[in-house]
Every structure is written in C-alpha cells, then in structure tokens.
C-alpha cells in the first residue's frame, strides 16, 4: 500500500538546499542511461559515471539522461554542477514526497510527476516520483528505483528512424514522457474499475469483513491517486501556456491533448472516489439488513413458541388436584392445541408478509 506521506524529520533545522534523500531506497546502486539522437543517428549507452554525461552537454543533438536510484547524493551533486542546476531543484529531486509541480528557471524547466503502475492486491498501486529537467537540447529524468518504468514505448519511438522524435526537440521528448505517465493512469484506473465492479457484486450478495477491508484499500488508493492527479492538471496547463523558450509552438497542441487526458483521468478518479465512498454506506446498510433478517427469524420463532411454552408450563405443574390430569385424551389434546396454535400463527405471519 503506498504511503501518503514520508518522514522529513531528518531535514529539520537544516538550511535550504541541503541534499538529503527522503524516501525509500529502491535500488542497490544507481543506474544512468543516456540516449542521444538527431535526425540521422541514435546513440544509447549505460553510463559508468556522471563524467560520461558531461560530453553530451555541448552537442547540438537531443540528449535524454535517465538516472534511476536517488540515494547516492554525489551523483545529483555532480550533475547539478555540470548543468548549473539550482540547489533547491536538487533538494526537491531528493525529496520523493513532492506535489506535482512546474518551475521555470529561465534556462531550464523543472517538472515533478507521480508515475503510477498497477500492482497486485498485496502491494496495491506502485508509485514512484519522476523529476524532469528540460533544457534547450536535453531532458534529464530522475527515478526512485530501477524496477521498471512506463517509458519503454518512448525509447522504441526514438530508435525508429521514421519517428517524429528524430526531427523534434527536447520539449517534444518531455511531452512524450509526460504523456506516457498520464496514459498509464488509465491502466491503473481500469484495474480499479474492475476491482470496484467485483466489490459491488460481493457487497450486494455476501458482504463480510474481507469486503470492508477491500473498501478501505480502494478508498486509500483513490485518495493517493487523487493526490497525484489533481495538481498534474495545473502542471500541464502551465506548460501549454508557458512563455518559456524551452517549449516550442509546434509542441503546444500535443500538450493540450495531454491536458485533455488529465481531465479525463480526474473525472474518472472523482467518479470512482464517490462510488467507493458510497460503498461504505452500502456495506453498513447490508450488514444492518442482514442483522434485521436474522432478528426477524429469531423473533418469529420465539413468538410461536411463547404460547406453546405457556401450555407446557401450565401442564408441567405438579399439583395433585388438577382437573385435566385424569383426562383420557388430555395428552393428544394438548398436542393438537399446540400444533393448531403454531400453524395458525405461521399462516397469520405469512398473510402479513412477515415471512
């Protein structure tokens, strides 16, 4: 289950710009991959260190540097010194509890996103913070772990000689990474939709304590998803309307398309959130109705046996001079009276539709 907040106590009292990793360590050792491309060529490699990234700084081609694993602060420090990033940007990259946002530093744009992937019922939604720094001819992305990402189709399109990537700039690469993140939200929502439909069916037919646990899990995931999606609309809208030289005019229509997708994700998220919130009321109502049905059956049984118990109590007394004790047919008459009373009460309850 994704955590809604991460501890920041380690940074208490430190000056702004202090580079301390906040979050889980999701990789044993960082990994740096470089993809450099232009209209004619594509170069892809795994870098042994930050020094291999420096040679691409002054190239006219587009360079995508992807850093996976944030616990090694020295790597971010070297990249920041090479590209001249503000210390507050590096600090935000290391703080993996950031709200999605966009910051314009004139020479580059800093973007924070939340990458979500569907998981199993034990782990829930897999969440990871993605930080993008977009320059005139480079995009540097920072990921928390190396378990995988949603950027595989982007890499395939870069390697395609006929792809639009080969003629576009770094801003189009940044758009494509954002689009891949947003499109994957639909995959997460599809899985949640299936879980909600299954839960609704179980909620109506056979609610149980396990059903209550599933409602709590979905409600928590919807809160986490809403926290990741709502600010994203502002980020994409800011990119589309930004006056930064990093965003070219031909890329803005594509950003509008991503903005529309983000609105759809928000609408679906709000719909699912309302459905999950209503499920708790349905669960309580179902359990209350179930208890009422049980109590009704027990009450009817007790009501039927009340006059029978009265008869048994009367004729169970051991008084010597009871007039009916000497009757020859007393025993079968008592049974006949008991059956008549019981059957009459059952017919009456059925007529009143209490059964």
Quick structural gist:
The protein is of the alpha+beta class and 355 residues long.
Topology:
Blueprint: E1 31-37, E2 42-47, H1 51-54, E3 62-68, H2 73-83, H3 87-94, E4 101-104, E5 109-117, E6 126-134, E7 138-143, H4 152-159, H5 170-205, H6 209-241, H7 252-314, H8 330-351
Parallel strand pairs: 3-7
Antiparallel strand pairs: 1-2, 1-3, 4-5, 5-6, 6-7
Essential attributes:
2 domains, Beta Polymerase, domain 2, Methane Monooxygenase Hydroxylase, Chain G, domain 1, 7-stranded mixed β-sheet, alpha+beta
Structural write-up:
- This protein has helices spanning 51-54, 73-83, 87-94, 152-159, 170-205, 209-241, 252-314, 330-351; strands at residues 31-37, 42-47, 62-68, 101-104, 109-117, 126-134, 138-143.
- Strands 2-1-3-7-6-5-4 form a seven-stranded mixed β-sheet.
- Helix 7 runs antiparallel to helix 8 (330-351).
- It is built from eight helices and seven strands.
- It has 355 residues and is α+β, with helices and mostly antiparallel strands.
- A hairpin with an 8-residue loop joins strand 5 and strand 6 (126-134).
- The longest helix is centred in the C-terminal third of the chain and has 63 residues, at 252-314.
- The chain folds into two domains: 19-286, CorA soluble domain-like (Beta Polymerase, domain 2, 2-Layer Sandwich); 295-351, Up-down Bundle (Methane Monooxygenase Hydroxylase, Chain G, domain 1).
């Amino acid at each position: 289950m994704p955590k809604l907040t991460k501890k920041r106590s380690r940074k208490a009292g430190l000056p702004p710009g202090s580079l301390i990793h906040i979050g889980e360590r999701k990789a044993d050792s960082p990994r740096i991959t470089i993809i450099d491309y232009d209209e004619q060529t594509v170069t892809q490699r795994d870098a042994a260190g930050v020094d291999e990234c420096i040679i691409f700084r002054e190239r006219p081609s587009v360079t995508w540097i992807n850093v996976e694993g944030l616990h090694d602060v020295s790597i971010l420090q070297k990249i920041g010194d090479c590209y001249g990033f503000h210390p507050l940007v590096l600090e935000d990259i290391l703080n993996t509890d950031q709200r999605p946002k966009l910051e314009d530093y004139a020479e580059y744009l800093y973007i924070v996103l939340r990458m979500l992937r569907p998981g199993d019922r034990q782990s829930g939604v897999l969440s990871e913070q993605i930080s993008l720094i977009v320059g005139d001819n480079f995009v540097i992305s920072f990921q928390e772990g190396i378990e995988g990402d949603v950027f595989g189709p982007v890499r395939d399109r870069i390697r395609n000689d006929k792809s639009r990537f080969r003629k576009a700039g770094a801003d189009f690469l940044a758009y494509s990474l954002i689009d891949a993140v947003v499109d994957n939200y639909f995959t997460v929502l599809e899985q949640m939709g299936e879980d909600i439909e299954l839960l609704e069916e179980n909620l109506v037919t056979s609610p149980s304590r396990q059903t209550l646990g599933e409602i709590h899990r979905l409600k928590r995931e919807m809160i986490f998803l809403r926290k990741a999606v709502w600010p994203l609309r502002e980020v994409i809208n800011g990119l589309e309307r930004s006056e930064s030289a990093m965003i070219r005019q031909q890329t803005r229509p594509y950003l509008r398309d991503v903005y529309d997708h983000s609105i759809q994700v928000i609408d679906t998220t709000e719909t699912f959130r309302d459905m999950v919130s209503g499920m708790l009321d349905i669960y309580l109502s179902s359990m209350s109705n179930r208890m009422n049905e049980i109590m009704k059956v027990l009450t009817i049984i007790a009501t039927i046996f009340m006059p029978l118990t009265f008869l048994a109590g009367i004729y169970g007394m051991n008084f010597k001079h009871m007039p009916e004790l000497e009757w020859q047919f007393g025993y079968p008459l008592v049974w006949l009276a008991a059956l008549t009373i019981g059957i009459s009460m059952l017919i009456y309850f059925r007529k009143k539709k209490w059964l």
